[in-house]
Amino acid sequence: MQLSYDFPADTSVLEKIGKLVIQIGQKAGFNDVEISDLQLVLVEVCTNAIVHGLKNDSEKNFQVIFDWETGKIEIFVHEAGEPFDPLSLKDPNIAVPLDKRQSSGYGLYFLHKLMDEADFRIGKDGVKTWRILKRKKIEETKDTP
Amino acid sequence: MKITEQITDNITIINLDGRLDAHTCESVEAFFREKMENGQYKFVMNMENVEFIDSAGLRVVLVVARDLRNKHKGDLHFALLQPAVSRVFEISGLNNVLYIYNNSENAVQGFSS
Q1: What is the ipTM of this complex?
Q2: Residue of chain A with shortest Cα separation from B65
Q3: Is the CB of A12 less than 8 angstroms away from the CB of B23?
Q4: Which domains are assigned to chain B?
């Protein structure tokens, strides 16, 4: 099943996007942890589109497409704002003490860590597209005596 | 984001209610900065009613905690992390560098130990 939404480039839409992920995640049979992982990553991607791509210009829109079936959710985020390369950020080193921690870069780190597939491309028309995909983990069943 | 506070033994307990994301993090950081300008350097952040945090929210707690420790000999303790928030702290490794307690009373007492 597929659903498409256009949102204005305003961070106030993030809560609504989060609620959509919860609804769709439940329909696709995901558990609470999987849904919260997907919500976190989609909010990061949309925040990038709003803040870095569209510069918080609420007159401009970005598009989110949810494509799901039981056990699998694929999401596309399309945005045609300012050029930027989200892949240029280094992942933070999470093993260092607080005073040596970098304060940015966690969004992309979550994306790499929590999604089964993720890719980013810029079309010839300048439209930037993120694709993220998450599959439900097959839960191990315990052998009963 | 709704923010309320109470002061116990010179320690400010901040109660947050809402999402800590790119939409709300500026107001939360501004709240802390104002308190720090007034000389308050020991805080407990009660997260009982925060069900979501993203990297923008993490950045705020990270820089505020770091400033409190490094510049003011204070700290920011956390209480009652909800499951989704606790998971983000664990994935980002912040649970290893911040003090996290199971309730606000213990988080306050943590400043004495």
Answers
A1: 0.93
A2: A98
A3: yes
A4: 11-109 (3.30.750.24)
